[in-house]
Amino acid sequence: MTSRLAPEFRFYSPHHVLIATAVGGPLAGAFIVAANSGNLGKRRASNTAIVVGVLVTGLLMLIAWFMPPNWFGPVVVAAYALAAQALAVRLQGQALAVHMSSGGRMQSRWRAAGVGAASLVTILLVILLAALVLPGDWLPR
């Protein structure tokens, strides 16, 4: 049962951040955190989350470029997804508790997975565009 004063927006939980980040990388997790921040009226925190997500995604892509072909990628994905979840707990755990105690509702896990999938497609399109536009020797191996 929800109260008449329940928040109108649906909150993403830290578990949603984990799902989105595992599917679509740090950019997806950052988008989830940014959506929550925006719904809480924290525009600056929302913008900061997106900028950090873009930077971390770029950094991970650069690191991956120089990794040996047989490195164990799933461990890295699990590590940064769990780190994103822990960061979401630290940044928004209290707000989630308040949201839920006031009768607020949660976003769907499927929506979080969809955000991750959209992020993954976006990243792949950027890589494809870069491969088509940039000269073949722009980044040495």
Structural commentary:
There is one protein chain. The chain has 141 residues and is mainly alpha-helical. The protein has one domain (10-133). Helices cover 73% and strands 3% of the residues. It has helices at 14-24, 26-39, 43-66, 73-101, 109-133, and strands at residues 10-11, 105-106. Strands 1-2 form a two-stranded parallel ribbon. The N and C termini lie far apart (58 Å).
Order of helices and strands: EHHHHEH
Structural class based on helices, strands and sheet pairing: mainly alpha
Low-confidence stretches: none
How many helices does DSSP assign?
5
Briefly characterize the structure:
The protein has 141 residues and is an all-alpha fold.
Write a concise keyword list for the protein shown above.
141 residues; mainly alpha; 5 helices; 2 strands; 73% helix
SSE layout:
Blueprint: E1 10-11, H1 14-24, H2 26-39, H3 43-66, H4 73-101, E2 105-106, H5 109-133
Parallel strand pairs: 1-2
Helix pairs in contact: 1-2, 1-4, 1-5, 2-3, 2-4, 2-5
